[in-house]
Write a structure and sequence with these properties.
Number of helices: 7
Radius of gyration: 22 Å
Number of domains: 2
Structural class: mainly alpha
Order of helices and strands: HHEEHEHHHEEH
Helix content: 40-55%
Shape: elongated
Strand content: 5-15%
Number of strands: 5
Strand order of the largest sheet: 3-5-4
Length: about 190
């Protein structure tokens, strides 16, 4: 009984622990080279982030992304997850109120309705993208802070717009890091 058990153990270790991971990694590197390497964004020879993981932007001259519920710091990829606060939880209500206050303080003249993705965290806490409504909501502040016209800022959003996946999954959106990098290059 010991020999068949050891042979089975060695065989499964070889197939599941070595061959399968090598084959899947190889396929990933060939078929999805950018994503398998972390979808890193390189600027001037330096990695500035990933298009798959959000970053915190809080300066008024930048587009702000979704809130991150990760700890001990925002957008911590090793602590991915939502806050798990229900809609009636006082902590969630306070976080939303705090973000609304910050948005209104940064752009007091903005009377547009605040898009929900600017005041709530996602399930992962790492979303790198915001809705077009969230991007357009911030146009006035960005234009004012960077001394640009609103038309220029809107055209940058349109130029960086991502369409629905496969034409029907999800909503049109914009990657916050890519948009902010485009703004830095323009201004």
């Amino acid at each position: 009984m010991l020999r068949p058990a050891l042979v089975l153990f060695a065989s499964l270790t070889l197939v599941c622990g070595i061959l399968y991971p090598v084959v899947v990694t190889g396929i990933g590197k060939v078929a999805f080279a950018d994503k398998a390497a972390g979808s890193l964004i390189v600027q001037n020879g330096k990695v500035v982030g990933s298009s798959l993981i959000g970053q915190e932007f809080s300066a008024p001259k930048y587009f702000w992304g979704r809130l991150s519920a990760t700890s001990p710091m925002p957008y911590n990829a090793t602590s991915s997850g939502g806050s798990n606060f229900g809609p009636s939880n006082p902590a969630l209500i306070d976080a939303v109120k705090g973000r609304i206050t910050a948005l209104k303080a940064a752009d007091p003249g903005n009377t547009l309705p605040i898009p929900v993705d600017l005041v709530t965290a996602s399930g992962s806490g790492l979303d790198p993208e915001i809705s077009l409504a969230a991007a357009y909501y911030q146009v006035g502040r960005i234009a004012r802070e960077r001394s640009l016209t609103t038309d220029v800022v809107r055209s940058m959003i349109d130029a960086n717009q991502l369409t629905r996946t496969l034409g029907f999954f999800g909503e049109p959106r914009v990657n916050v890091l890519a948009l902010n990098l485009a703004l830095d290059q323009k201004h």
